[in-house]
Design brief:
The complex is a heterodimer of chains A (161) and B (770). Chain A is α+β, with helices and mostly antiparallel strands. Chain A folds into 2 domains: 75 residues, Ubiquitin-like (UB roll) (Roll); 69 residues, [2Fe-2S]-binding domain (DNA polymerase, domain 1). Helices cover 33% and strands 16% of the residues of chain A. The longest helix of chain A is centred in the C-terminal third of the chain and has 16 residues. The radius of gyration of chain A is 15 Å and the shape is globular. Chain B is an alpha+beta fold and 770 residues long. Chain B folds into 3 domains: 162 residues, Aldehyde oxidase/xanthine dehydrogenase, molybdopterin binding domain (Aldehyde Oxidoreductase, domain 4), CATH 3.30.365.10; 186 residues, Aldehyde Oxidoreductase, domain 4 (2-Layer Sandwich), CATH 3.30.365; 317 residues, Aldehyde Oxidoreductase, domain 4 (2-Layer Sandwich). In chain B, 27% of the residues lie in helices and 24% in strands. Chain B is built from 19 helices and 29 strands. In chain B, the strands form 7 sheets. Chain B has a 7-stranded mixed β-sheet. In chain B, strands 7-15-14-13-8-29 form a 6-stranded mixed β-sheet. In chain B, helix 8 packs parallel to helix 9, helix 14 packs parallel to helix 15 and helix 15 packs across helix 16. Classes of the chains: A alpha+beta (161), B alpha+beta (770).
């Protein structure tokens, strides 16, 4: 067991992790941040996508110990209090989710995509979320939601945190 | 409380979404009761083997408890779908005596921490005596094949036939015939959330609570209570947020019983969360069938006869393994008026994972084959495939139509949906473009198909199983509404649509209706969410319960206002007396019901009602799908370029939800047609045990869809709705296959299987076999 301290959603977290503990299990089981989900543990489905030091990461592909000192953003940190992030709003308004299980990862992948490329084309959106699998929506409304989020963020002049 | 008369049919944003987009959804694995122990399941590495002794490696972690099949006291799982005349079998929670597929549970352990599970499992060694296995259904039918159950003397579990007319004569007199073999691969549903269970027995209250990823909590409760001789009222099943089901979370799995066994023994909560590998090797598989079909036609394109012999590979049979092939047989004639047909289905046991429902449950297979046969007829007669379909549809004048396979289609205008879909995509224009591009190196294919689907499972009387769904409504003292549904949603948006139904009936806002589901202690006895039934059956129950509550409110309002009950109307959240112009708000009537002092004589206090809606008949959705694909002749890769759906699922409650169901269904169908494949090698090992090997459609594989609809209201329920959960998939597999066959016409067609992976298509292009 080793102590791991990280900043998650702007808050300091300290927890214990075995050398083999994956970051996603650390978040969920040790820190109680269950918004991040597990779907495959081989880095394929993207349900566990989070932002680590500004980059989108599949948190089943990282050990907890590698996150020592990292600055992490998870789905729980997207909204500011009761004010939803424009990406969350857009997913809601465009029916970009059904069972909700892939949604946190999908939101974080979208967050990174729009941070890197604020005005993506449809093709770029599709590529941007190609590493996140969804079995409910057929992606149609997810693509629409990301496009709408991009427009919202442009219109609102909203810079991402 | 505002009033909106357009609630039903309005594209209202979903109520459930807020918790999902903020990370506050609660799935089984998110619950961690104190003092929990973790269960691990040891699975057979052999497809077929005798199980002998058990050994422990003392250097490994010692489990708190262990159970093996050979010493298990657990009763067999009750078989849910029985076909008359089928061979008897008793699915065990743990294999005893012998294991029949790779991944079959053979032992289970519990340990103190989740991270110790794998280590502890490595410390148990079972002695196996491998037996010759059979993983191919046609081989399994041959004499001398290894047998799953020696006492059967065969692997043929049962054979079913449906027929009508004189099919031999039809073929003798046919002006044209086609025939083929079509192999549908083994696939599964892939909810992104794997299966999970927490079983927790409280020794003080002697109550058992189980959280599990279930599509039908009450059935799970009944099975668990019976399996452990527990009083029903002491067992509570909670299916919290469930991350997709699509059929694989339909039944009770061995692991749920094993977790229950351990919690009863250890008096501690027991948690099991499977990984994707376990899911792929032991959760329900579906689809796999081989069809030998023949179709006879006249020169005018009229189909005169159809024969099909289906070999359905149900794996090592379990509780619902017989369901998909039985459904295929019922729907095999699709949208077509066939006077002469004969179809046989062999249900065959093999050494593969248990079979069961996967989105569409046998229906996509049926529609795929009949549509493919029609394509071959069109090709043979050099007719346009849409024209051939138009000449053979069951017409609205034929409704209700007896399919001759045990179904009675209630409604549907198949020609109209196909016509509309062809117009939307400009079918004739596309055909001209295709002609113009012919020989210029691009292989474009157009597939236009039509599907029909029985939805809204029930009725109890004809299905022989409970086919109703329940609703309990309680209008609270504030006028807010709690609606308790027996359905168990897991992505279908029922919290929104059921709220819309109640809100419409009570003329209040959907936001004032809270929908409660998935907890056997809170909701009335429910049958569950499967088979495109929730909106139809649970929706109707919600409407009828709300209507009963409204009637009581009308009585209270008329008493309070001293107006005649006949003159009372409810509108905009206000009860009004038509003649006298007096009124009382919805909220004040609710308050009066609980304050009781001002109630009319003989009326009880409170405001609640329930409904057990049992539909008088199945109701049939239909739709047309048109796909345009491009086949890359270098690589065999298929890309879906355009896609149009015209669906008729009766009255639409919320178009946002309905379109979402169709879009997700189509993606599943495209994946099924092109990508998804559970593959066993010659040593009977599953090769596709991660999502790296088992491919599902990604955002790069599914195009934007154009969706339109017709609305033929159902007459089998008060809402006029028909199910829509599976139609997208049913139509899409057939449409994509039809489009690929069309693209390959210059190369002789020859499509004979799904999935049409690049390798399969490349071989068809270059006619290489092996």
């Amino acid at each position: 067991m080793k102590q791991v301290s990280t900043t998650i959603n702007g808050q300091k977290y300290v927890g214990n992790a075995e050398p083999r503990t994956l970051l996603v299990y650390f978040l969920r089981d040790e820190l109680g941040l269950t918004g991040t989900h597990i779907g495959c543990v081989v880095g394929k489905c993207g349900a566990c996508s989070i932002i680590v030091d500004g980059k989108v990461v599949k948190s089943c592909m990282m050990f907890a110990n590698q996150a020592e000192g990292a600055d992490i953003l998870t789905v729980e940190g997207l909204a500011q209090g009761s004010k939803l992030h424009p990406i969350q709003e857009a997913f809601w308004e465009n029916h970009g989710l059904q069972c909700g299980y892939c949604t946190p990862g999908m939101l974080m992948a979208s967050y990174y995509l729009l941070k890197e490329n604020p005005k993506p084309t449809e093709e770029e959106i599709r590529r941007g979320i190609a590493g996140n699998l969804c079995m409910c929506t057929g992606y149609v409304n997810i693509v629409k939601a990301i496009k709408a989020a991009s427009e919202k963020m442009q219109a609102g002049g909203q810079s991402q945190k | 409380m505002s009033a909106k008369k357009t609630m039903l049919g309005a594209p209202i944003k979903r109520k459930e979404d807020i918790r999902f987009i903020t990370g506050r959804g609660r799935y089984v694995d998110d619950f961690n009761p104190p003092n929990t122990v973790y269960m691990g399941v040891l699975r057979s590495p052999y497809a077929h083997a005798k199980i002998n002794n058990i050994h422990f490696n003392k250097e490994k972690i010692k489990p708190l408890s262990i159970l093996t099949g050979n010493n298990s006291p657990l009763k067999p799982l009750p078989v849910f779908i029985n076909i008359p005349g089928m061979k008897p079998y008793s699915p065990q929670a743990l294999a005893s005596g012998k294991a029949r597929y790779v991944g079959e549970p053979v032992a289970a352990i519990v340990v103190d921490s989740r991270s110790d599970v794998e280590d502890a499992l490595e410390g148990i060694q079972l002695e196996y005596e491998p037996l010759e296995a059979v993983v191919d259904a046609e081989t399994a039918l041959q004499t001398g094949s290894p047998l799953l159950y020696d006492e059967w003397g065969t692997n043929l579990i049962v054979k079913r036939t449906a027929s009508r007319g004189d099919v031999d004569r039809a073929f003798r007199e046919a002006e044209a015939t086609v025939k083929g073999r079509f192999k549908i691969g083994r696939q599964t549903a892939i909810p992104i959330e794997n299966r999970a269970v927490i079983a927790s027995f409280d020794p003080y209250s002697e109550r058992l609570t189980i959280w599990c990823t279930s599509q039908q909590p009450h059935r799970t409760r009944d099975t668990v209570a019976e399996a452990f001789n527990l009083p029903l009222e002491k067992v509570r099943i909670i299916a919290p947020d469930v991350g997709g089901g699509f059929g694989v979370k339909f039944g009770v799995y061995p692991e749920y019983l094993l977790a229950t066994y351990f919690t009863l023994l250890l008096k501690r909560p027991v948690k099991w969360v499977e990984d994707r590998r376990e899911h792929l090797m032991s959760a329900i598989h579906g689809r796999e069938q081989t069809h030998y079909f023949e179709m006879a036609a006249g020169r005018d394109g009229r189909i005169t006869g159809f024969k099909d012999h289906v070999v359905a590979d149900v794996g090592s049979p379990s509780i619902i393994s017989m369901s998909p092939p039985a459904k295929t047989l019922q729907l095999i004639t699709g949208c077509y008026k066939l006077e002469n047909f004969k179809v046989d289905v062999d249900f065959v046991a093999t050494n593969k994972a248990p079979f069961g429902p996967v989105r569409g449950n046998g229906r996509p297979e049926a529609i795929l084959v009949v549509e493919h046969a029609l394509d071959l007829v069109a090709q043979e007669l050099k007719m346009d495939p849409v024209e051939v379909r138009m000449r053979n549809f069951v017409s609205p004048r034929d409704m209700p139509y007896d399919s001759g396979t045990g179904l009675r289609y209630d409604s549907g205008d198949f020609a109209a949906v196909l016509k509309k879909a062809c117009e939307l995509i400009d079918y004739n224009g596309l055909r001209k473009q295709q002609e113009a591009q012919h020989g210029k190196g691009r292989s474009i294919g157009i597939g236009a198909v039509c599907y029909v689907e029985d939805t809204g499972f029930g009725p109890s009387k004809t299905s022989g199983r409970p086919g109703y769904e329940t609703a309990f409504i309680r209008v609270e003292r504030t006028g807010a509404v709690n609606l308790y549904t027996g359905a168990s949603p897991h992505g279908q948006g029922l919290e929104t649509t059921l709220a819309q139904i109640c809100a419409e009936e009570l003329t209040i806002h959907p936001e004032d209706v809270n929908v409660v589901f998935g907890d056997t202690e809170r909701v009335p006895y429910g049958i569950g969410t499967f088979g495109s039934r929730s909106a139809v059956v649970a929706g109707s129950a919600a409407l009828l319960a709300a209507r009963k509550a409204k009637e009581k409110m009308l009585a209270i309002a008329s008493h309070v206002l001293d107006a005649s009950p006949e003159s009372m109307i409810l509108g905009g959240g206000v009860f009004m007396s038509g003649g006298e112009g007096r009124s009382i708000s919805f909220r004040d009537v609710a308050k009066a019901a609980y304050d009781a002092a001002g109630l009319p004589p003989r009326l009880e206090a409170g405001l609640q009602a329930s409904s057990y809606f049992d539909p008088p008949a199945l109701t049939f959705s239909c739709g047309a799908h048109v796909a345009v694909v491009e086949v890359d002749s270098e690589t065999g890769n298929v890309k879906v370029l355009k896609y149009v759906v015209v669906d008729d699922c009766g009255k639409v409650l919320n178009p946002v939800v309905v379109h979402g169901q169709i879009e997700g269904g189509v993606a599943k169908g495209i994946g099924g047609a092109l990508l998804e494949q559970l593959k066993y090698d010659e040593n009977d090992q599953l090769l596709t045990s991660t999502l790296m090997d088992y491919l599902i459609a990604s955002s790069m594989d599914v195009p934007e869809l154009e969706i339109d609809r017709l609305e033929t209201p159902s007459e089998s329920n008060p809402l006029g709705v028909k199910g829509v959960g599976e139609g997208g998939t049913i139509g899409a597999v057939a449409a994509v296959v039809s489009a690929v066959q069309d693209a390959l016409r210059p190369f002789g067609g020859g499509v004979d299987q799904v999935p049409l992976t690049p390798e399969v298509v490349w071989r068809l292009l270059w006619k290489q076999t092996g």
